[in-house]
Amino acid sequence: MTATDSGSPPRSALQPIVVALPGVNDNAPLFSQSSYSVDIAENNAHGALLLTVTVFDQDLGQNARLSFSILDREVQGSAVSSLVYVNSENGDLHAIRALDHEQGNVFQVQVKEAGITVQSSIVTMHVFVIDENDHAPALIYPAPPPDGVLQLSVPLSGWFRTPGASFIKWT
């Protein structure tokens, strides 16, 4: 601020004034990708890190603090929160338990990020559970007898069809 008098010669003084403007949380956080995808082998280790989300927020100070959480839904008869966990401070997504391809191989996990006020964003994560050969074959027809011994006559090689089954190659 400058003050000037009306004298001759005029005299003036200069005084700086500091105006503090409080920050406003006026920018929604932005995820680095519009969606995330990860492949994980079924029967994964408990607590396995699936992926980490990256978020940018143009606000400063308290308004730039981020918090991550799962928007809980039901997938294949289980709550998403019983399958995966997101670290609320850094966005790391972990498997809570071993995932099974036979129970469902794609999960859409939505992660919410929010600042001190209402600004937030949501991203979808696709977790693809890759099938492993973890189940032995089972004879379903004809049903094995109670003593567990079943005798069948089959050709030494070639194709044949069993009743109620599709064609099978035997070598």
Automatic annotation (TrEMBL):
UniProt subcellular location: Membrane
Main localization category: membrane
InterPro entries: Cadherin-like_dom, Cadherin-like_sf, Cadherin_CS, Protocadherin/Cadherin-CA
Record membrane topology: Single-pass membrane protein
Record's keyword terms, sorted: Calcium, Glycoprotein, Membrane, Repeat, Transmembrane, Transmembrane helix
SMART domains assigned: CA (SM00112)
Residues of the Cadherin domain: 1-31, 32-139
Pfam families: Cadherin
PANTHER family in UniProt: CADHERIN-87A (PTHR24028), PROTOCADHERIN 1 GAMMA 32 (PTHR24028:SF264)
Protein name: Protocadherin gamma-A10-like
Taxonomy of the source species: Eukaryota, Metazoa, Chordata, Craniata, Vertebrata
